[in-house]
Amino acid sequence: YKRFNYLRDFYKLDIFRHENLNIGLVYRKAGDTKKANALIEDYHQYIEKDQTLYRDLGLSAYYHTIGEPEKALEHLKRFSKEDNVQYWIILFMRQDPLPGSMNSLPECKKVLDEIESKFWTNHEKLKLTLEEKGLL
């Protein structure tokens, strides 16, 4: 990511901030904790301002990364209340690449099950509606 970050800084591009958490984790693994912490904090500033339904999911990842599992789980629970979650979230939410993944915790598994169940219930309702209208 050195080249990417250099170009982003050089051209003053405010892009891909939603990836700074992952990029920060790479820097952390490479031993550059100063750069890692700066990127992770920038991600936090970005996700705090996010106005999409994925804000709490992003905050959950952030708090998990900085070692605050209670806050991470709290935000995951808030995210579970959202409707119309994109399918790719359901596909990948159990394959969280973050270190020390929360996915193994029973309470987290319960919340993930709720999110997935809600998605499939909404999917079936939409399918029936589209079939009734002859669109499927």
Describe this structure in words.
There is one protein chain. The chain is an all-alpha fold and 136 residues long. The chain contains seven helices and no strands. The chain has helices spanning 2-10, 20-29, 33-48, 55-65, 69-79, 87-92, 106-132. α3 (33-48) runs antiparallel to α4 and α4 runs antiparallel to α5. The longest helix has 27 residues, at 106-132. The protein is globular and about 55 Å long. The chain starts with a helix and ends with a helix.
State the shape.
Answer: globular
Segments where pLDDT lies below 50 for 5+ residues? none
User: Which bin fits the share of residues in helices?
Assistant: 55-70%
Biggest sheet descriptor: none
**Mean pLDDT level:** 92
Order of helices and strands: HHHHHHH
- Measured by DSSP, the beta-strand proportion falls in under 5%
Structural class estimated from helices and strands: mainly alpha
The end-to-end distance, rounded to whole angstroms, is 44 Å
In DSSP terms, counting alpha (H) and pi (I) runs of 4 or more, how many helices? 7
Strands, count: 0
Rg, Å, rounded: 18 Å
